[in-house]
Each structure stands twice: as structure tokens, then as C-alpha cells.
Amino acid sequence: MAEDKGEGKEDYKLEANSELRFEVEAGATVQLELAEGKAEIFGTELTTNRKCTFLAGAKVAVYTWHGCHIKLSGRTDVAYISKDTPMTIYVNTHQALEQMRHIAEEHVTRGPRVLVVGPTDVGKSTLCHLLLNYAVACGHSPVFVDIDVGQNDIAIPGTLGAMVVERPADVEEGFSLTAPLVFHYGHNSPAQNPTLFNILVSKLGEIINTKCNEIKKSNYSGVIINTGGWVRGTGYDAIKHAAGAFEVDVVIVLDQERLYNELKRDMPGFVKVILLPKSGGVVERNRNIRTEFRDQKVREYFYGTRNSLFPHTFEVPFAEVKIFKIGAPSLPASCLPLGMKTGDNKTKVVPVTIGPTVQHHIMSISSASSVDHNILEANSLGFIIITGIDMEKQKFTVLSPSPRPLPKSILLMSDIQFMDIE
Ligand code: ATP
């Protein structure tokens, strides 16, 4: 396994069943070109002689089944070829799911519903990406659900989302996000409000069942669900809850035998629990890198992956909106009003007084029309950030993907903040 810190232009000749792994240095970009042969990046086939640009911090693996010639230019933190990859095992898993899809279509039943679980940094999102791309390449339209509230691939951090995937992901831009269904959760870990997290998972499960009953193709194609890395204690209970809510019949456990054995013990008999190895290429991310990734996701939401979007900035009078937060601080049972349980606090819709404390917080625009609606389970129409507050004029300034006015007046405040500085 040759390793180097690359600068400038590098040529890599890859043998069959090997992959070129590289990371883009901070503050740099790397251009990649497939000069000869066939290769793919996380299940998306590369086009010969098309130059793809990867941005700072990107961690990429170019895999080839039959050999290829790759050219890289730019500054990589690390770039090496590895022949030790679990790709054959992953493609076999895809083949098994493909068989389930064919049986579903033949018997007019449901396609595979797959929950991908495992600790942090084992390649869960990457495996989902791969399985979705392969399914689409076989002519299917699977539903992708992402309940990883820390590093969400569908919307911004602090949300849960679902969408139908109809095209392979673009190697630079990812999956095209047509009409995703997004729910506001408001924290970057399910541990901060497991009660709310489980309610939203159940809601998503319900909607997906309804949609799959309506859209036959998605029903046969199945559902692929990505989860976060919280697998102990309440996190384990949340995994079991998600398995039930999405009515999964396959659970893929990446890289943890203990979790695999626990799930084998606890899942109903009809659920296939499979243990898959993680790829040696998956890069571990420390707390700082995770925070940077989250910031990058929020920035991408407003500015696009390549700064191709132009968000709007405008003032909103305080009186035009109502801001709420979900969940009140826990009180000891003895201090709760009569008949109220400790868990009820976690789903309480609490009004937020507009003032300097709301600045920089991500706000989700709720689809609920009034406070009488079930705000908790209303999906998000989009997100804004409050970038400035004028207490005297009773107005605040927002960063918004679309021009004024805001489509609805109920905003849900996220714990997660974003400072709009380049
Ligand atoms: P999380 O803990 O956030 O749930 P995860 O288990 O979903 O993480 P991924 O996000 O899939 O892990 O992978 C972590 C990082 O490793 C990503 O940046 C991904 O692009 C990179 N990566 C995955 N597979 C490989 C590989 N074979 N070679 C190089 N980089 C890889």
C-alpha cells in the first residue's frame, strides 16, 4: 500500500478490484479524471475524460472492478491504492436485495426495507449511498431515509429526512434533492431528546408506508435507512424503535459484532440481521471535524455545494412570526403539574421570546398553519438563520434561500447555530 502526500499531478494505474483513496487538503481542491478503463465513486460510475473537482476535506475512494488509469491534480492530504476492500461483499449484499426486489415485483409485495446501523465512522452513509446507486442503476426508485441527525445527507443537521432516489448521485454534488420530506428535530444527537426523536421516526415510518402504498415502483424498490452512530443504551432502543417504525426486514450491522448479536437476539425472526465489515478506507472524524462537516452542510444549504446559490437577506417584523422550541427542561416528577409525566416535557411546544438569544440559531419554517396544529409532527418547508436583531425597530434580519415573504409564520428553533462567515 503506497502512501504519499500529493502535490501537483499524479497518475495512478489501478489493478482490478482495487481502490484509490484520497483526502483533499484543507483550503485546497483536487481534480480527478478517469483517463482509461472503468471506475466508480461510491457506486456512481465515472465518465472517461470528465474532470471532477473535490473540495477541501473530501474523503474519496475510486474503485475499479477491471482496472483503470486515474489522474489527480491538486493537493491531497493522503492518496494511496488499496486492494483490501469489502466491495465484493457489498455488491453481493446488493445482489441479495435485488433478488428481494424481483420477488416483491412478482408477488406484488414490498421490496427490502434495510436499516443500516453501526458505531460512528464505519461507513454507514457510504454503504447507503452505494446500495441506492446500485439499485437505481438496476432501474429501481428506492426511498432513502436519513435519521442521522448529526450528519444528515438529505437536509441540514438537526433534521430527519426522506426522499425517493431516481438518479444515481452526481460524484461532485451527491443525490439530487427533489422534494425531500424533512422534519425538524433541533439537536445534533438523538440523545438530547430521544422521546421527540422516536416520535419523528414513527411519523416518517407512517408517511413512507402510505407513499409506498401509492407509488408501486418505490414499494418494490424498497427503503434504505441510514442511522447515526449511537448504539448503546437508549441509542440501542432507538435502533429497535426505528426497525419497527420502518417495518424493516433487513438490518445491516457494520463492523460491530456485539451490536450484531444483540440485534440477532432482539429482532423478530423474519428480520435478517447481517454483519458486514467496514472498509479500511473509512476515515475517522473527531469532534472538530464533525462540527466543521455540520457547518459545511448548513453553508451548502444556503450557498450550494459550489457557491452556486445566492441566498436572500431581509428584515422580518417580530409580529409576523411566532417562534417555538420543542422540549422544556426536565423537572423532577414532584414538581410537575398533576397528571403530567416527565416524558411530556420533551414534547412540549414552548414559545420563545424574540431577543438576542435567538440570533445565529437555525430556524425551521413549519408547515403548520396555526399553533392549534400538531406542530411537532408538521414537516419543515425550509430553513432560515436569524443573522441580526433590532430590538428598537422590533425586526430581525434573516438569511433565507428564497426571497421574502416567509411562506409560513411558525418557526421552530434549533439548538444548532450557524455563523455566516466565509
Ligand atoms: P457517522 O459516524 O457520521 O454515522 P458513517 O459511519 O456514516 O459516519 P461515512 O460518513 O460513510 O461513515 O464515512 C466517513 C468518511 O469516510 C466519509 O467522509 C466518507 O467519504 C469516507 N469514506 C468512506 N469509505 C471510504 C473509502 N473506502 N475510502 C476513503 N474514504 C472513505
Provide structural commentary.
There is one protein chain. By secondary structure, this protein is α+β, with helices and mostly antiparallel strands. The chain has three domains: 9-84, Jelly Rolls (Sandwich); 87-276, Rossmann fold, CATH 3.40.50.300; 308-417, Pre-mRNA cleavage complex subunit Clp1, C-terminal domain (Elongation Factor Tu (Ef-tu), domain 3). It has helices spanning 87-107, 124-137, 194-214, 216-221, 234-245, 257-266, 287-303, 342-345; strands spanning 3-4, 9-14, 18-24, 30-37, 40-41, 44-45, 51-54, 59-64, 68-74, 76-82, 113-117, 143-146, 159-164, 181-184, 223-226, 250-254, 272-276, 312-317, 322-326, 349-351, 361-366, 380-390, 395-400, 410-417. The protein has a seven-stranded mixed β-sheet with strand order 14-13-12-15-11-16-17, with helices on both faces. It has a seven-stranded mixed β-sheet with strand order 18-23-22-21-24-19-20, with no helix packed on it. A hairpin with a 4-residue loop joins strand 22 and strand 23 (395-400). Helix 1 (87-107) crosses helix 2 (124-137) and helix 3 (194-214) packs parallel to helix 5. The model has no long low-confidence stretch (mean pLDDT 93). Adenosine-5'-triphosphate binds at residues 21, 59, 61, 120-126, 148, 151, 228-229, 279, 281-283.
